[in-house]
Amino acid sequence: MNINSQSDIDYWLEIMRVSFNRSNISKKDFYDNVIQHPYYSVIETFFLVDGVKPIAIVSAAYFKKNNKIGVTHYLGISQEYKGQKLGKYMILYALHYLRKNGFNQCEAESYLKYKESLGIHFNFGFKPKTKFENWNTFDNSNLISKILTKSELLKFYKNFYKNK
Asked: Parallel, antiparallel, or unpaired: how do β-strands 69-77 and 105-108 relate?
C-alpha cells in the first residue's frame, strides 16, 4: 500500500467500513490507526485483490513500547469474501513479512468482540498473555476492567480448544 496514494487510502477505508461495519470511518481514522497509531509503528500494509478490486487488508507493525516484537494489525476482509480462509492467509503473509524483516517474536491483539480474529490467531498458536505487565500496549484501564478482560479471554481460549 502506498500511504500517499489517495486511491489506496480510499480502498483501505472501504475495506474497514465493510469488514468492521463502521460506515463513519474517515481519513482521520486511517491516519490515527495506521500512520500515527499510539501503540504500533506500521511498517507495511498489504492488500489482497480480486482482479483490480482490493478485498482484504492487513498491516505488519511493531510495538512502540518494545520494538523487537512484531504485531499484525487491522486485518479486514470484505463481507462477500469472508468464510474463505483469507484472514488466515493475510495473517500468515504479514507474519512471514515480519520474520523476513528480522522479527523473531510476534504478538497479536484484538478486541474480545472479534471472535473470528481471535480464532485465527489461536489456530496459529497464539495464546493469551496472563500477566498484565507483559502487555505491550499502554493500557490505562482500571484493574477491574483488566481482570474481567483477561477472564473473558481465557474462557474463550479454553472453549475454543475444547470445541475443536
From this structure: parallel
